[in-house]
Amino acid sequence: MNAFEKIISAIGSFAWGPVMITLLFLTGLLLSIGTKVVQYRKIGHAFKLLASRDTKGDGDITPFAALMTSLSATIGTGNIAGVATAIAIGGPGAVFWMWVTAVLGGATKFSEAVLALKYRTTDEFGEKSGGPMYYASRGMEEKYGGNWKWLGAAFALFAFIASFGIGNMVQSNSVADAINQSVGLPHWVTGIIVAVATALVVIGGIKSIARVAETIVPVMAIVYVLGSLWVIFANLDLLPQAFGWIFGNAFNGNAVGGGFLGTVVRMGVARGVFSNEAGLGSAPIAHAASKNNDPVRQGIIASLGSFIDTIVICTMTALVIMISPVMTIGGDGLMIIKDNLNGAALTTAAYNQALPGGFGQFIVSFGLIFFAYSTILTWYFYGYKSLEYLTGAKIASYYKWVWVALIFVGATVPLSFVWNISDAFNGLMAVPNLIALMALSSVVFGMLREYENKLKK
Length: 457
What we know:
By secondary structure, the chain is an all-alpha fold. The chain contains 23 helices and 4 strands. The N and C termini lie far apart (64 Å).
């Protein structure tokens, strides 16, 4: 077992190490240049398309529901615990690199969704199936010839393995911990409740998941943002100082005692990618189900994902931490965090000290519970579609019962090893996805030009 754990650890170090982070960053940069920063040139158009709720195209769910479904998987523990970890290890400057990653990630999300719709298929049950496994196989074969099914299968396998941890057991464990700390409910009771609540939704497939996502995601995001704005507006005088820390430490390691610039950049980019999943290839699986016959229109909507997840929600968490008493900068310029807090504990302490009557703990607990639950729902769909690609829809249809059972297991057992496996394979998903994205980038650029030419007429 020791040797196996070492192998998994080595895979995880590579998957989230400097090489992969650099590739993710460069892919976002090149796609941003190739699309002429479509994620911000068209941001107004994106919100207009989102508000239209257009349902005229083929597919299973509305474009709005597709975005909410993809966001339900990305808005999660990374927005609460991940941001705090980035600040604790990389210092305030890590937030700047999270922003940079999100800005570039918008072009990646755009490209992923465009390709997902262009190369999607219809499965045995009449549902749309798409994502990196399809554009890495069908798209590559159409453009370059030959057999590229192995590349699609590699992504599907990595995503399927990752789904059990990152999208299931780790999330149910987070919910059980949050409820146990808040009201003292035993982990096994929470495990049963979450398992039953999940079963009632996933049995209805993507349409049912999307209905829940488009209800839960806006509500939970608004509550979290409003709670954060309450803290920020109550401490407006400290806001310039917080931004000063972010920009002042973005290009050095002074904020983390004896740290290096590489630590600041790596933590910011890694936590940014982990939070919004741009480049990992999960979100396009949800966008492929959209009732939209124009891939570019859906791509423009999809580009909002990184903006909402990281520029808005992660920024809320970061600013609350930095204007709260839990964090100060000493006279020597080094960051001091009270009681060496990290992760969700740091975020909870920051909100608790900033809001009266324990309301801060409620905001964080509410966020963790609902963010994690919605992640479980969407990652079921990602895992199901990945297994469907490998085995066919009929065999994959039994997957839901395994998924529900593992929610209970995840809520009641230690998960350090499960976390290591899922974290490693979650990062590995990026490898086949980035290969396909870059190889098919000219297809994306050409489709965007055609779309914009039509708009001019």
